[in-house]
Amino acid sequence: MKYFPTLVMICFVSFFTQAQTDDDTSTQKDSTWTTEGSFQFLINQAAFNKDWQGGGTSNYSANVVINYDINYNKEKWTWDTKILGDYGINKTKDQDFYRKTSDRLEINSTVGRQIDKSKWYTSGFVNFRTQFDKGYDFGEDAEGNQIRDLRTQFMSPAFTQLGIGALWKQSDDIRVNISPVTGRIITANSRFTTIPGYVDGDFFGLDEGKTIRTEFGASINAFVKFKLMENITVGNVLGLYSNYLEDPQNVDIDYTLNLVMSVNEYISANFTFQAIYDDNAVRGFQVREVLGVGFNYNF
């Protein structure tokens, strides 16, 4: 896994290069406000009767994704906001509980004022990230019964970043924000930091009994979206953060690749890959992949 960050960066740079090439030949819309969004519902199901000899367990999974962009461009001012909601569950016949396959609520908003006639802007940004539903660790008790222990929930944790810096913007679909002055606030319900035997930092860096952790550091946020080929769109979101006050060399990474393959106006196949590194949560990469075919509606 030690080469994983390098691999992610190479992929992102290659996408960025392709996106910039594609954008150079496009015509920009002359509009102050532009909005674009999509709703996706993906479902997978497998069923086996009792006489099936090939092995297998009946199961189903469902995933809902909402992706919405709001862009403002007028004279020297630009304001870009992205809202992302992603929730999925999986249930097999032998499980007493459903399990989440994805759970994410994120809002990114960046405002900038153009410097002369360049592609650079002075900028300020806010980023908010949490989850919709409770998260659990699953296991068995001494009698072999399935049990689950609460691990996370809505607003526990919640991450809020605010910063100022510089924005480089090629278009609404290609932008990079660099913020050497970034404050980050991590919040959680006290139930997670007051359990017996709690050690400072165990829950996303929070000290025992605390509900708020404040940090000060630097961040880079990039967004690149482009059409790979006809009916195939690739979206990339990359977030990097370094805490000046504690282990600045341990850079937090949050990278998401979303590949949408449209069959027609309402049917699409979607592939999502996300990799997170946050040593306050776990000293290793958190990786998830979701692939499905389902209903798609653009608005």
UniProtKB/TrEMBL annotation:
<keyword id="KW-0732">Signal</keyword>
<protein>
    <submittedName>
        <fullName>DUF3078 domain-containing protein</fullName>
    </submittedName>
</protein>
<dbReference type="Pfam" id="PF11276">
    <property type="entry name" value="DUF3078"/>
</dbReference>
<feature type="signal peptide">
    <location>
        <begin position="1"/>
        <end position="19"/>
    </location>
</feature>
<dbReference type="InterPro" id="IPR021428">
    <property type="entry name" value="DUF3078"/>
</dbReference>
